[in-house]
Design brief:
Structural class: mainly alpha
Radius of gyration: 24 Å
Largest sheet: none
Oligomer: single chain
Distance between the termini: 76 Å
């Protein structure tokens, strides 16, 4: 690859990500939406669902009034976003984080490691980060099957940790 192409690609990636992130945050702050209702809905998404269920309607009215008074500037939108992030942080728990970790690792084990790797092996793709590609024949399928089995177990445990089963009412 020519040096100019490498530099051009690096510059494109260095410019692309900050611009994409700025556009995404702008959209989340309500910019680019045509109606006030859409802007208010975008701002409410910063808050967790239980908070929106309790306070969303009143807060939505407050945001509409603020926008009607002409106090709809970047500073007020950033303040709404900051408070929404604080509310989300209050709902954070180790159990939910553990559940997301289990689910993420489980899906990585099932899809790429357990399903895609043997297919790539059949296609003759050279060894990459897929563990099963480093084995041949029946061992490859054994490794892929183990990845699927362990991945499904992690997904099951992650789902149970994320939303534990409600206790059954006592019969009486």
């Amino acid at each position: 690859m020519k040096r100019g192409l490498i530099v051009a690609e690096l510059v494109a990636w260095i410019v692309f990500f900050p611009v994409a992130i700025a556009l995404m945050i702008g959209r989340q702050l309500g910019y680019g939406w045509k109606s006030k209702d859409d802007r208010v809905e975008a701002l409410l998404q910063w808050y967790p669902a239980p908070w929106r269920a309790r306070h969303g309607e009143r807060f939505s009215e407050l945001l509409h009034d603020t926008m009607a008074d002409g106090r709809d500037d970047l500073r007020s939108r950033l303040d709404v976003a900051r408070e929404g992030v604080i509310e989300r942080r209050r709902e954070w728990s180790w159990q939910r984080s553990w559940a997301w970790l289990l689910l993420s690792v489980g899906w990585i084990m099932v899809l790429p490691q357990g399903i895609i790797a043997p297919i790539l092996g059949l296609l003759g793709v050279p060894n990459t980060w897929f563990a099963a590609l480093y084995f041949e024949g029946a061992e490859r399928w054994l490794i892929a099957g183990a990845m699927v089995a362990v991945g499904l177990l992690l997904i099951d445990r992650g789902l149970r940790a994320y939303a534990p089963a409600a206790p059954e009412p006592a019969a009486g």
